[in-house]
Amino acid sequence: MKDTDQITLVVNIPERIVVRTEHVVRLVADTPSGSHGIWPHRLDFVAPLRPGILTFQDDQGSEHYIALDEGILLKSGLLVQVSARRAVASDDLDSLRERLEATLKAVSEQDMQTRRILMKFEDDFIRLYHEVHRGKA
Q1: pLDDT value at position 79?
Q2: How many CA atoms lie within 13 A of 48 on its CB side?
């Protein structure tokens, strides 16, 4: 297979690049309208991605998996770029599940911490608001 028959795949999340590989021969992504197979010389397009697993095959025939949150996929020539809020990559589905569970647990803990901070902020704001308005009465 020629290099001109291979896709460069780049998967980004806000913090970093999750995957960058130049030897992809095909990939499958889930969009709101269904699963789409992407081959090297398919027409260029942009598509929203729904949460799911993006699967790609390298030039050695190995399958690779990326669990994605919602995102967007852009295919331009032999470049496919995916941007998502969260993404976890693995070479097998069992370890993908384990890594995804660990990531979701960490996100859940961050969400709980954020909620606690917001609740404290709201409490402080309400307290200060009442103090200011009591002084004006």
Answers
A1: 97
A2: 5
